[in-house]
Each structure stands twice: as structure tokens, then as C-alpha cells.
Amino acid sequence: MSATAEANRRLAAEFGLNPEEFSRALAILGHSPTLTEIGIFGAMWSEHCSYKSSRVWLRELPTAAPWVIQGPGENAGVVAIGEGLAAVFKMESHNHPSFIEPYQGAATGVGGILRDVFTMGARPIANLNALRFGDPGEPDTRRIVDGVVRGIGGYGNCVGVPTVGGEINFHAAYNGNPLVNAMTVGIARADRIFRSAAAGVGNPVVYVGAKTGRDGIQGATMASAAFGADAAEKRPTVQVGDPFTEKLLIEACLALMETDAIVAIQDMGAAGLTSSAVEMAGKGGLGIALDLDLVPVRETGMSAYEIMLSESQERMLMVLRPGQEEAARAIFGKWELDVAVIGRLNESGRIVVHHQGRVEAEIPLGPLGKEAPLYRRPAAVPPKPPPLDPTTIADPLGLAPALLRLIGCPDLCSRAWAWDQYDATVGGQTVQRPGTADAAVVRVEGRALGLALTTDCTPRYCAADAEVGGAQAVAEAWRNLTAVGARPLALTDNLNFGSPENPAVMGQFAAAVRGMATACRALDFPVVSGNVSLYNETKGAPILPTPVIGGLGVLDDAAAAVGIALSPGLDVVLIGRTLGWLGQSLWLREIAGREAGAPPPVDLAAERRNGDFVRGRIAGGHVRACHDVSDGGLLIAIAEMALAGSAGARLAPPTAGIPPHAFWFGEDQARYVLGVADAAGILAAAEAEGVPAVRLGTAGGGDLTLPGGIAISLGALSEAHEHFFPAWLD
Amino acid sequence: MRAGITVFPGINRERDMAIALERVAGAPPRMLWHRETDLSGLDLIVIPGGFSFGDYLRAGAMAAHSPIMGAIRAHAERGGYVLGACNGFQILTEAGLLPGALLRNASLRFLAMDCHLRVERADTAFTGHYQRGAVFRAPLAHGEGNYFADDATLDRLEGEGLVAFRYATADGRIAPEANRNGSARAIAGIFSPNLRVLGLMPHAEDLVDPVVGGTDGLPLFQGLAAALAA
Amino acid sequence: MKAIVTVMPKPGVLDPQGKAIGRALAHLGFTDVGEVRAGKVIEVELASSDPDAARRTAEAMAEKLLANTVIERFSVEIA
Known about the structure:
With 230 residues, chain B is of the alpha/beta class.
């Protein structure tokens, strides 16, 4: 092997190409590679762009339904929501950048997912964020939480898209590897969806948005002596978000989309110009010639490699119809954004990159896509812990102290500290704000139609049994949409796992996807978009498997949405069967100090039956408040409803021989607590449909009163609930 | 009422404002790009909320120099009505159309929550559909809403009855816990001496619909529509 | 003595604020404006009378708190 070949191989390794992958790249190229070419192969064949370890498993997920307009494979998924409209949505991770620089990492995560949605022609109407942080006792966790929350607010508030929901959880497994999963939902006309496949030989390839700098270029260590004395100047830099430019980009793109100028459009996300140009031309079966001298740059002396791989934010690539360049210039000029024709489509089937009079890259697009690596990596079947018998687990604390401790623990306490930094009302359509309902509800401007939105995952269930955990995440999202009265339509997923090269992690991944797929089928709840984030590890240990589900449902009349707040005089009714399942419950972790047992089983038939029943009763106007039973169990659900409505409740249910702590804190699935004016009517209807239902008591007063005269005042509950975040972070 | 809404790059509550105005006026307001200077035929100019020019440097500082601001100044000098909400209030102070400044919130955090406003006088076009001393709810959403002016200015504002709204508790008390951004004398909104220019921080325009949180903000727009019906 | 710590975005790091200010200056008729970078200046009174010690202290403050060295650089002036 020549010295050059050896140097290239080392370089390829730094770009994440293993020797076999690099050999394949060389065979495709048929010539000695340039740095830019190695960079393009490294980026396109990275886990992030190629899904090389996950693709074989993702095929199991159902992606079709009559209402699905666009499934996975585009910038975002699209479903019909009625009245000729479509919801466009996706979730994406920005985990690693949020550890390095929490504010900018989270901010640019929000910016990226917004672009994925408005790229498709949709005006973004809501953001959600699923966040996982390390142990609150670790000093670094505070820095990360504070920065991430500020970053989400800083970006979302400025672009004027309301942040309406999400979740925050803590676990030591996320020390040094927080998860920031951002979801955006937009609205478009169902017949005006923009896609990324290029078309039309000779059509101009147009760059719009911010200028290109050396932001986030991969292969940090590659700036060795080989690249000259100015290596230090070339070092990659952290991406900084500019929500102001993003806001201009939204308005300019949506304005141009009202014309017929655009053939195809894609945002420049990961791997920047490389992935957008390669994917657009590749999907269209065409060739593309780029002249990098025409790319707007904000730094001097940028190399072809840097321009192609830059991850500068707030940029888009479009293919326009011939002669539409001036239309684009007029609109983007009004918004003071750069527009540049940087290339043309051709029939060559190749990407050819010109820079300063040289051809810096020439790669056939077919093989670059078709011969991308695809791995079925070894997957070990993860061992499953046996179920715990609730009658063998003693209650060390008693119900009232346990309730107060649980409702104040980091995973269950009030998230108001975070929500109070997110503008949830901009747009004037937010019907259910964070904390008021199981799903956020946002109305479609000018219509009665509303969207229900939620993100869900219970990582500790997934760690114990990934298949059950995967199914549970889907079921819980479906349940949360149901609990506001919405018809669940589809979901986006964000699959956060450790290293795929670890068979145990790959086994978790495969099992979680299998569980998700089963639940999606049973609930008619297809996956329309998603993102996989692997290599989430800290000190060699993987994070908890965290397949986050972003669910979307529709309400024909947003005004009919139901929140969780109890009001005095309502009957409190439980839907669903209670067994007292304590395995992997928060009670077991927080009160008994154990993370043990099998997670609660997910009975999808029961989910469907109970959920359809609840949705039907809400549609019939019989339900005033509804809350699903999830983390912390039944008593936590009721306490949250009581706090939301400032109304206590007197509870005296039959506990069917279940130990009281298991009855109140067990996490059996497929359950809802309803606040209703007419319990008898609900119970009769439930019986007729074979749905388990029991009256728990009546709302009213200033206490939660349990059998045996145990009373907890709302004041004490509220104090416990509100304490943690402000005390920790302000 | 013939209303226009100014659109600066980075403004983001112009649609909310347009919905509120259309609800009371029956017709959509005119949207005014910040480079326009012809406001003829309009009796109310609204500068909505958002992040004009990203709120970089100081909130409202760059918008205050936009071409439309000269026309708005002339409109105000002619006795025209101007409403600045949130970023609009910041722009009006930066442009010198209202005194004082909006500093960073005392908590140094962005605040997004409902607050309660006490109506300090009801004999104006903006507040005519509220009772004096009435308390209404409105969302606030800002990083720089901490109203500041020197004591002489504050004394003058109070002495001349130019304080429009104060942050209050739900039962109308002025209390530190109700003044989340730390504004001087709990001031949430002020009038110009002729009572025709109003700047306020919270978003009355986001509470004009029973389905979306309630209608606490609606009287402000109904009052304007009634006063400017001609 | 007084330490004057100037914190600026690192070269190459996008500075949205500087960019927006530059554009606004151009609109105001300042036509010869090139790149604009916006940072901040922090003045810290120090009890020390030894300029070298004061500088070391101020640099430590900047490293630890005043600057985010992932995206910002700083300089210290002792007066």
C-alpha cells in the first residue's frame, strides 16, 4: 500500500468509514479520492445519514394508513386531518451537541426540526420537547438542564412557534449524555406538500438562507499538518442558532411556496450541503453539478471540504423551475436573506463539485445510495426480569407520606419552572397548555379543527423489557391523545440507544422496535417519520433505551377537548383493570429504593377497548375531566387532577384484596381516571361494552381523603409538587 | 375602526393581533411592512409582539429606526391612535414615543405565563370597556418587560394619570409576587399624555376567544372598536 | 484595582447579534460597514494590588464563569 493510500485509509477511519466501507467507496469512485470525496462518503454512510445499523429493524414498523400522505423518507411525515388540510410533523434528537453546549445544542435542535417541517410547505404551529437528564445530584446536570431549557425557549420563543408540551425525566444513566428530542408540528394544504426529489434537467439548484461558516464540521481531528499551516483557523466550531434568521426563512419559504417556483426543497441539516444535494439529486435519479465558488460564505479561505460538510444553520437547498430565480430573489431579498444559484441538475447521475477551477468531487449517486452499508448487527436477546408479586413487597412508609414524596420527586414534580420559560400562547390557538391536559391541543387557525400532541416514553420499562417498553411508549402516546378526546392518527419516533456495536444494545433496539410495531398495528397508529440516535453512552455504559414517541391526533372540534382538572361535585371513575403492578414503578424506585421486576404488561386489546370507550364518552359530552394513569399510578393521577382543578376528593374504592400501596401506586396500563357528572351512566355504558370501570369517589373539599381517614391537604400536595425545580435551579 | 399592523422582520404576534382586531372590527386589518411610510386612511396603528430584528442589541432598538417609525411618529403627533404590545411597547420606548425603557426581567429568565392586570383608568379609548380598578387576566411572554424610568418620570406618569395597567394579584392587590418581571411601581402599560398611544407588555390579543383560554382581553379591542367607530 | 474582561464570540463562530447590528447600520446609511461582532465587557473590582495576581484571578474568573469558552474567547485588561 502506498503512503498516500495509507494516509487516505487513516483519514477515512477518522470520518467513520471502516476499511471495508472505504474499499467499497474506492471501488465506486474508481479513482484516488480527494478529501472532499472521503468527506462525502463518510457523511452519507454515517449512522446518522444512512441508518446502516437500524434500517433492517425499522422496516418492521407499519407506516401506512388511508390518512397517511407521506410516510418515512422525507423531511417529515404528513397525515390528512380533514377539511383539505394536512399535519406535517417529525421529531429529531440533538443529544450530543446539547451536552457540549446546552443552550446552543438545544436551540439548534429546535431550529433543525422546524426546518424539516416548513421545508414541506407547512407553517409550524407547535413545538414539543422530550428531555432526559442525568442524576439531579450530579453538579453537571444543573448546568445542562438550565442551558437546555433556556435554549429551547430562546429559539422557539423568538421564531414565534408555541412550545406546548413535552416531558422531562431524570436518571443517572443519562449523566454526560442528555437526550434532547425536539418535535415540530405544522399545517399545510394537503394538496400543497413539498418534497425533496429533484426533477428537471437544467433546472437551477438554489441556495437560500444564512451564509456558510465552519460550523460543526465533522472529523474534528482531521485538521492535521496535511492541511497546511492554517490548521488552527480551520478547526470546527460549535453551531450557533440564529432564530431571527430562521423566522425570516420560514416567512420567505412559505411565501415562495405560494407560487409555483419550487420543484423540490430540502433543508441543510446534518452533513449540510452534502446530504441535501446528494439526497435531492439521488431521489430524482438525476445528476447535479455544484459550483462552490457561488456558495455564500461568511469566512475566508473555506475549502471545498468545509463548504460541503459545514453544518451552518438556517440554510435550505431548492430546485426551481426554469426562470423562477428572480421570483425567489424578490421574496428572499425582501427578507434580506441570501439567494444563490449554485448549480444545475443534469442527466449524468453524478454529483460533481467544482471549486476554484478544480473538480473537488465526482461521485456516481446511484451507488453512493444503493451501496451504502447495511448491517444486521449481532443482537443479544436481553434477559427479562421476572414479575414481582405485590403481596411480597412491604410498604415501608404509608400512603400519605409516599404520595407527598412521589409527587415532589424529580420525575413527577411540577414542570412549571420549565413551561414558564416557553411561550405557549403565541399564535393565539393554544387550547390546552402544558400541564392542563394529557396532550397539548392546538387549534388550526380559522377552523374548529384541533390537533392533540404528546411525547411519551418510559425508559425504565424499556430497560427491563425493551419489547414491552416499546409497546408501552406507543400505547401511552395513544392513550394521552385519547384522554383529551382526540382520534390518534400517527406518530413520529426518536429512537435513542447506546452503541449498535454492543449486541445487548442492538438486542434492546430490535426488541423495542418489535414492541412498537405490534402496538402500532393494534392501535392503527402508523409511524410516519422518525430519527435514530445511537452511540448514546457515558463512561462506556449505554443510556436507558429511550424510544420516544411523538403522537398526533385530531379533534374535529378543538373546543370539545377535555383537560385533567377536577371540579367539585364530579364523580371520580376509574376505567381499566387494576392489578397493583409494582414492578418498575416509581413507587418501587422512590419509596422502596429498588429498580426491579418486570414492567407492567401492555394488553393492546384492552388499550384499544378502554381507549375507544373513553373517547366515545368524551365525544358524547359525558366527561368533564380525564387523565390517563401512568408514572406513579392511580393516586398520583388523581392528585394531579386535584391540583389542576384546586378540588380535593373523597375516595373509597373497593380494592379487591390488593395491598393498598399496590392499588394506589401500581402502574397497570390501559387505565384512565374520569371526572364525570353522572357516574351511573358511565358505569352502565362501560358494562355494556365490557370495559372495566369502578367509581372511586367524589371530588370536592380541600383534601384528598383515602379510606381509613387518611387525608392530605391540597396545600401540602401543592407545596411538595412545586418545590423541586425552583429550589434547584433558581 | 381602520387598523394597520406593522410587520418588522422578526415580529411574530402579528397574526394573533390581526385575529383580535378582525373579531371586533369585522374586517381584517391592513398589514404594513416596516419599509412602508403611507399610513393614510388608518386611525389605529398596532405594533405587535415578537422579536423585531431578533431583539439583538436591545429589544426594539433596531425597529425604532425603521422607515415606518417616522410615519407612526407623525400619525401620533396628528392625534392618531397607536397600540404597542410587548415588543411594540419596547419599540415605542426606543423610538421615544413613550418614556422609560423595558429592562431584562428581574429573574433574568424569559417569563411566559398568565398575569393579572389592574385597570388604572377606564376613560380612554383603550380601556373604555373595562371598569376602573377591574382586574383581567392576560398572558405575558417576554424576556425584557421590566419597566424602568427615573423617579421624576414615574412621578409624572402617576401624577398625570398616564399609568394604564399595573400587575396585580387576581383580587387586585399590588404585590411583589404579582409583579414577576420586577417593573417599577408594577407598571405594565402606560399612555402618552393625550391618552392615544398605549404601550403594554402582556398579550390581551391572546385572550379573545372562549375556546382559547378565555376572553379577558377582548374588552380592550371592543373598547377601541367602539371609540373609533366612525 | 480593576480587571476589565472583554468577552467576544470566537472567530468563526456565528454571531447573529453582530450580523443583525451590521445590517441595521447599513440601513441607517453607514455604507462602509464590514463584519460586526458583538460581545460584552465586564468590569471586576479586585482587592489585590499586584497586577499579575489580579490578571491571573480575572483570567480564572473568565475561564470559569464570565466566558463560555466553547463559543467565546476573552481578554483581560488590568487598570
